[in-house]
Amino acid sequence: MTRTAKLALEDGTVFAGRAFGADGERTGEVVFNTAMSGYQEILTDPSYHGQIVTMTYPHIGNYGVNEEDLESARPWVEGFVAREFSRIQSNFRASSTLEEYFRKHGIVGIDDIDTRALTRRLRTTGALNGALSTTDLDDASLTRKAKAVPSMVGLDLVKDVTCREPRPWREHVAGARDAKFKVALIDCGVKWNIVRLLAESDCDVTVHPAGVPAERLLADKVDGVVLSNGPGDPGAVTYTVETAKALVKKEVPLFGICLGHQILGLALGARVYKLKFGHHGANHPVKEVASGKVEITSQNHGFAVDERTCPAAGIEVTHVNLNDGTVEGFRHRNAPVFSVQYHPEASPGPHDSRYLFGQFIKMMSVRR
Fold it and tell me: Which of 144, 208, 247, 273 could hold 252 in an S-S bridge, CB 3.0 to 4.6 Å?
């Protein structure tokens, strides 16, 4: 039996369509993702906590869901929107259909709506808060709920997604061996592939809660620290910013990714601002300033470092976004610190930027 669902935006726009997955009601910031595949990795990316994700690619779910492509232990999106969800799966790796996965984890989805019109509204107006429901189908009521959603600006969502205790990643790797480098990863909502690639790069990785003090990491005599991706406003994650400041002063090699890039920018004295509708997808072109080389990158962020504040902070911009000119990477002129706004670990996305993990290894080697 076909069920009805509605998505209301805070500006009063309402989309009616078919319900997919679990029954219920969810609210959050509505964003769009331009990736053609990789929906499972998107669903399980903790950076999407607090957001309702719209996929611009029209057919989602064709290859089902499997246990190998997870980027965390559970899905984090508040809701999922598509032009057409596949009710069946056709792939030898699949262990269930997307609808079964949604029902198991309580994800509310909607399809059979004009996702082009929705995406155009978000591009024109900017990211809007929304309410997605299969239970309340009253337009005025849903719009009121969308208007009541807290702004992403000033919102600390890292506290919801970070691990609670330090955990060595080696315990999760079959046949773990002695590694050359001791690395601490500050978990602001880390995607597992970041840790996998560090482990493959001869790193003994311990994942720490976002609130870990610098003193703890210094006492562990780590060779380097990675600040992970994550959701929400970096300016609200003051505890991790303070840790990063202390590590910079001690000249510990630091590598920031996505939210970690923004946190490092704040720690160094730069400013961070909210983008109009953010960058979400697996096809964003980024230019390395020094060489002119262009990388196609995977991205998921709603904030950016303000380039105008970089020189005073001792920051040199290393990468820029070719779509809108925003800062995509920087390094500190004096300290062993560098970061990128995009996702070098991809998953989903191209592998153009994996060399950055080698750059981090080289930086740690020099500092030993």
Answer: 247
